[in-house]
Amino acid sequence: GGAFAGFESSVGDLGEFLFTEDNCVITLDVWKSVESPVTIKFDAGPPPNDWGTITVSATNTETNAWQTLTFNYCTVAPELRNPPAQFGGLKRLAIFPDNVERSQDNIIYIDNITFTSE
User: Fold this and answer.
1) How many CA atoms lie within 13 A of 25 on its CB side?
2) 43 near 109, Cβ under 8 Å?
3) pTM metric for this prediction
4) Which of 11, 93, 87, 91 is nearest to 49 (CA)?
5) Could you report the per-residue pLDDT of 38-49, keeping only the tens digit for each?
6) Quick count: other Cβ atoms within 10 Å of Cβ 35?
7) Three-state SS for 22?
8) Dihedral pair phi/psi, residue 86, rounded to 5°
């Protein structure tokens, strides 16, 4: 039940990409029994390519129902959303679906992750 509990894609599941104006808004559908922040982060892979973006959070306002959350990386400074050239592109997504300290585990569903423009 730790706030840091989450999951990540395998390195390369996303291919390799950089954020542009065409793909810097991420949406995902979430079903949760509590209101709490969902936090996402991207990285360039395992060491030595372990550069990561800053985290961006969104909080659901509905419970026991599906809700679409939006994470806007367009507003993040370019040097904080894309890795330096020596690390290549972004290769992995990490999601922390209930990013608060809590006393119990919660079941959370996530679906329909999309990348769009602002």
Assistant:
1) 8
2) no
3) 0.90
4) 87
5) 999 999 988 777
6) 12
7) coil
8) -65, -15
